[in-house]
Every structure is written in C-alpha cells, then in structure tokens.
Write a structure and sequence with these properties.
The chain has 14 helices and no strands. With about 400 residues, the chain is mostly helical. It has a single domain, classed as Up-down Bundle (Cytochrome C Oxidase, Chain A), CATH 1.20.210.10. Helix 1 runs antiparallel to helix 2, helix 3 runs antiparallel to helix 4 and helix 13 runs antiparallel to helix 14. It is globular, with a radius of gyration of 20 Å. The two termini are about 20 Å apart.
C-alpha cells in the first residue's frame, strides 16, 4: 500500500473496498442498457416510441455492453476486492487506482455509445477497444502478486481468465471496425467462456469455504484437478471455434465441459449447501453453465430449433453470469456491511426475476416467429424482467454500500 494512503479503517466507507462503487455502477448500467434494449425491441415490434438507431448491428452493441460492460463491472468489483486478499495483499490497491479504473472504464463506454449513436462505428470500436485494454491492464496489475498467493493456485486461473476476457473484448472491437461477423462470434464465445471460467475459479474455492462456515456438518470439497482440466478443455474448445469444419468436435468438447462442471458441483455436496439459501443458491448459476454448454453442444452437433445459435449465449449470460453477479454481490455487500447473510424477500425476488428473464429469452423463440418481429417483440419481456431484477438490487443494496462491519 502506498505510504500516503490511509489504512482501510480510516477511509470513508465508500473507499474501503472497490466493490462499494463498482457494484452500484454495474447495476445502474444494467438498468440503463436493458431499458434501451427493451425500448428498441418494442419499436421493432411496432409497439413503442422511436429510438435512435445505432450505427452498429444492435445485437452486437447489446452483447458487448452486457458482457464487457455490466458483467465486467461486477467482475471488477469482486476481483479487486477478493483477489488481493487471496494473494496476501489486502490493502495493495490504493483507492485512487481503482477509482481511476472506474472513471476510465466509464469514459471508454461513453465513447463507445457516442460512436454507436452518431459519431461513427470507428469511434465506437475505439471505445470498445479501450475497455478491453483496461481489462488487460487490470489482469496485468493483479498478476504481479500471484507469486505470493502460494497454494491453492485458484488466483492464477482467475487472473488468466480475466486476461482472456480482455483479449476477447479487443477482438470484438476489431470485429466492429472490420465488420467481421466471424470474429465477433469468436469474441462473444471467448468472452463468456472466460468470464464463466473466472467465476468457476472463484466458486471452486469460495463455495466450499462459505458452506463450511455456515452449514453444520458440511462435507463438500473442491477437486484438485478441476481447474487444470477446465482450462485445458475450455482452451481447446475456443481454438476449435476459429477452425472451420470442427463443429462436431467442438460440440463433444462442450459435452465434456458440461460433465466436468457438473461433476465438480456434485463434489460441493449440493444437498448440504442448500440448507443455507445464500450458499446453496450459488449452485443455480452453475446449473445454468451446464445447461448453456449442453445447448451449445446440441447446436454444434446439428440440432436445430428457433434461435438455436444464440440459446447458449443467453443461458450462459443471463442465467449463469448475471445470476452469479447478483448472488455474489448480495453475499459481499451484506457481509461487509455487517448484515445477516440472509437476503430479504425482495433480494430473493430479484434473483427469481432474473431466472424468469432467462427462461423467457430461451422459450419465446419457440412459439413466436421472426415474421413481423414476433420473436423480438416477445423477448422484450426478458429485458423488462432483467431491468426489474437490478432495480430491486439497487433499492435494497445501494444503502449497504456505505455501511461497514
């Protein structure tokens, strides 16, 4: 810690840990992005007011701002709070550094939106690229402490996944500049797989630890080979994404990844973990990870249904990562505020609203056709459910950001 930085207990509450500003920023961004997306979908269905037409494919803009915007802000908040502690540097990041990161990341996304809504696709790509560079820089900054983490090696996998996500954001920015759909598709898959890998690296250590502290008689344990095998299978899957003609093999790898994650979740003794809501509910996003990989495998192996190519994206992004962001942020916010680790009915409702959003987004294409914007018109409900979930988060947890135990 810098000599001129006061100890954590002497700082203003909002400056004690990075999550206190990153989590609210993420929730506010989620509400703003989904409000715009919902209005756009209503407009496409002929049932809403006119909205500015982006200069980029709307789905590309939507995906980037959620994966490397909303979800990334939650990841920053958790990673910058937890990983320095796991690397034995709990006060290693002075507030001015993570405040600078937050300001720079917000500026990058402001440039992205300015470009998308009028300044030009090149400007939007520059903003997206700047965001990717900031993710890579953060991973590089955390990497300098990895040698002090000792054993277990979980922080190493988490930081590697963060760096891969940053590289994918840069690739997506390049896809915008080059109008390259294949590059965009690779970037989206790589970004989501990297974020899921980071989440599983954290869960691999934290879920058994939390359960052991909260559930009497808990006997779950983390598998020693889980992360190396996960990284090897996931890395090979992403390589094959860029190689033409390998879809069947890629589908088999998705099946292996799904089985490997399900096996590890079983080692965490889910029946015992479910005795405490805030412990057991962390297994819900893991179930979505498995579902997403099964959907991806089915599509790669030739199965076809309406919107098959994007089903896994929404299962992983909404059901998996967004749900985990809600659950992790509840745990951190309540725990650091000295509150009981038992979310009230409104916070629990926020999580179930998000499950409904994932379900609507996956099921609506099955009964609504593309003709006349039917599918887009129906799935706008997923946007409003997502928005309601994070609005509830803000109402219930924003006041907790200024509290400390």
């Amino acid at each position: 810690m810098a000599a001129d930085t006061p100890p954590r207990e002497e700082r203003a509450a909002l400056l004690r840990e990075p999550y206190r500003l990153f989590f609210p920023a993420a929730a506010l961004y989620a509400v703003a992005v989904m409000a715009g997306w919902g209005l756009w979908l209503l407009y496409l269905g002929g049932r809403g007011p006119g909205v500015p037409a982006p200069l980029l494919p709307p789905a590309w803009l939507h995906g980037h701002t959620l994966i490397w915007g909303v979800l990334q802000l939650f990841i920053f908040g958790f990673a910058l709070t937890a990983l320095p502690r796991q690397c034995r540097h709990p006060d290693g990041i002075p507030p001015r550094r993570w405040l600078s990161l937050l300001a720079a990341f917000a500026a990058a996304h402001a440039v992205l939106w300015a470009g998308a809504l009028g300044a030009g696709a090149g400007v939007a790509a520059a903003g997206a690229g700047a965001g990717g560079l900031l993710i890579l820089a953060t991973a590089g900054g955390l990497a300098r402490w990895l040698a002090d983490a000792g054993n277990p090696h979980q922080p190493r996998y988490a930081v590697a996944a963060l760096a891969l996500s940053g590289a994918a954001a840069l690739a997506d920015a390049a896809a915008w500049g080059l109008t390259a759909p294949a590059v965009h598709a690779w970037a989206v898959r790589t970004g989501l797989y990297a974020e899921a890998g980071l989440a599983l690296a954290l869960l691999h250590r934290l879920l058994p630890m939390f359960a052991g502290n909260a559930v009497p008689g808990y006997d779950g344990a983390a598998g020693s080979r889980f992360l190396p095998v996960l990284a090897a299978l996931g890395g090979l899957r992403l390589v094959l994404t860029a190689v033409a003609g390998t879809a069947p093999v890629a589908g088999v790898l998705d099946l292996l990844l799904a089985a490997w994650i399900a096996r590890e979740a079983w080692r965490w003794s889910p029946a015992a973990a479910l005795r405490r809501w805030l412990v057991g509910v962390k297994l819900l996003p893991v179930a979505w990870f498995v579902m997403a990989l099964l959907l991806s495998a089915a599509a790669a192996l030739g199965a076809d249904w309406p919107d098959a190519g994007r089903a896994w994206i929404h299962a992983l992004g909404i059901g998996g990562m967004a749900s985990l962001a809600l659950v992790f942020s509840m745990r951190v916010s309540l725990g650091h505020a000295g509150r009981p680790l038992d979310p009230d009915r409104w916070l629990r409702a926020a999580l179930w609203l998000l499950q409904a959003a994932a379900g609507v987004r996956l099921l609506a294409p099955l009964w609504t056709g593309d003709a006349g914007g039917g599918m887009m018109s129906a799935t706008h409900w997923a946007a409003w459910l997502w928005l309601a979930a994070f609005a509830l988060w803000l109402v219930r947890l924003l006041p907790r950001m200024a509290e400390h135990s």
